[in-house]
Every structure is written in structure tokens, then in C-alpha cells.
Amino acid sequence: MSMLLLTSQAVSADPPPAAPPDLSNAPRLCQLVDIVRLVIRYAIAAGGLATFGMILFGGLQFLMAGANDGAIQQARSTITWALIGMVILFSSYFILVAISEFTGVDVTGFEYPWVGTVGENPCGV
Length: 125
Fold this sequence. Notes:
3 helices; mainly alpha; elongated; 0% strand
């Protein structure tokens, strides 16, 4: 009988109240600047790796083509477009850097002027 009474009391007990969430490490708007810089950096690296992979793939196509003129042309086209993509990728980055150097405006990142004007500034800007 006492076992049944203990079980019914355990089931009917209210759960403890939930603690409020800890927002001290929550993302802030000013961290978006860092995210954009990282995306640009990793996009350039990923583009370079993709270019290397496409050149390698085109080279393997060229080796496997043998005397097949159509396959040789396809391999040359793959290598050519990979190199064109690499030139476009790196020239776009160098254009952004040149604009930044000549004008003094950081175009690879951006800032919100109103971040930190109200209350505490969480990002130290």
C-alpha cells in the first residue's frame, strides 16, 4: 500500500520550473562583419581547391583520351574553363583589395554604425 502511495505522489508532482536561458553567448549583429570576412576567405580557398580539382580532372581526361579527338577537345575545354574561373575568382578578390587600398573603405567587410550605440556594446566596436 505504501508503495502505491509513493508512486502516485511521484507522478502527480509538478516538474521544477525551467531556468531562464543564458544569453551571454548569443550571436550579436556586429558579429555579422566577422562572418562576411570568413565567408569571403573560405570562398576564395574553396574556389582555389575547386580549380585545382578541375585542372586535375581535365588532365586525367586528357591522359585517358588517347587518339579520340572529341575527348581531347573536352579535356582542353575543362582545363581552359577551370583556368578562366580561377582568373575571375582571384581578380575579383584583388579588385576588392585594390578598392580598399585606394579609397580606404573596407569593401570586404561592413559595419553597422548603430551597433553599440544603445546600452552595452557586446562586440567591443
